[in-house]
Write a structure and sequence with these properties.
With 256 residues, the chain is α/β, with parallel strands linked by helices. It has helices at 9-26, 40-49, 76-83, 105-118, 155-165, 180-184, 199-207, 240-248, and strands at 2-6, 31-34, 58-61, 63-65, 95-96, 124-127, 149-152, 174-177, 188-193, 225-230. Bound molecules: fructose -6-phosphate (F6R).
């Protein structure tokens, strides 16, 4: 796992955007795994500003709330459209977001998994982290081998996301999320976390034991993970001097 600590979220986001842009230029038909949430907004702004060619890319989003329509102000369909998709030349047929209104949720989840496989798997998966360590909406105690499925949100996540919905009561209880097993199959994971409210989850994910109580800790098993942090999110890590030294000493061919 590579840990990149920057003074500000903006500085960390700029490096993450360079990494995503590099993949898009190198592999124009790449498969991107996309996330939503406040952490991703500046990253998408940076990517839009770079005017990259998205015409051959395929995208799969991590998750969607169950029971809310794509037009709902807080649906992840809407988030993606407004923050990224309507600003780039991605082909609508290549955009995949779980269907929160699916009549047969298990069948829709299986189909989502099949589509990811048919596309050749995810080249680069963007991830945020919940304050208790979720990735996607794989809440604590999620199976570390899970596939795309319905999950029930914890009270903690519903409280955290109340800020987007204007109140906790409005936050749906159920979501469809890519499984942890599915996330682990992506070729490269980029985890972004900013702010002191993420510090504990980051310390548990990066330096704690691998445990379903902190689903992000399973990324320790993944062969290629890059973690982008600001100082506040890195505050509870023990080996920060080591991570900084490694990043400063990177040979040119490894520089982002
Ligand atoms: C969103 C997702 C979640 C968020 C996480 C952090 O698609 O999968 O795991 O990445 O909840 O959300 P923010 O960035 O809003 O703090």
């Amino acid at each position: 796992m590579e840990i990149i600590i920057q003074p500000t979220p903006e500085a960390a986001t700029a490096i993450a955007a360079r990494l995503v842009a590099r993949l898009i230029r190198k592999k124009p038909a790449a498969v991107l795994g996309l996330a939503t949430g406040g952490t991703m907004e500046p990253l998408y702004r940076e990517l839009v500003a770079q005017k990259l060619d998205w015409s051959r890319l395929t995208t799969f989003n991590l998750d969607e709330y169950v029971g809310i329509a794509p037009e709902h102000s807080q649906s992840y369909h809407r988030f993606m459209r407004e923050k990224l998709l309507q600003h780039v030349n991605v082909a609508a047929a290549n955009v995949n977001i779980p269907d929160g209104l699916a009549q047969d949720v298990p069948a829709a989840c299986e189909n989502y998994e099949r589509k990811i496989s048919a596309a050749g798997g995810i080249d680069l998966q963007l991830l945020g982290i919940g304050t208790h360590g979720h990735i996607g909406f794989n809440e604590p105690t999620s199976s570390l081998a899970s596939r795309t499925r319905i999950k029930t949100l914890t009270p903690q996540t519903r409280r955290d996301n109340a800020r987007y919905f204007g109140g906790e009561e409005q936050v749906p209880h159920h979501v469809i999320t890519l499984g942890i097993g599915t996330i682990l199959e992506s070729r490269h994971c980029l985890l972004l976390a900013f702010g002191k409210q993420k510090a504990r989850a980051i310390a548990a994910a990066v330096e704690g034991p691998i445990t379903a109580m902190c689903p992000a800790s399973v990324l320790q098993l993944h062969p290629r993970v890059t973690v982008f942090l600001d100082e506040a999110a890195a505050a509870e890590l023990k080996l920060t001097d080591y991570y900084r030294w490694v990043y400063a000493q990177k040979p040119d061919w490894q520089r982002i």
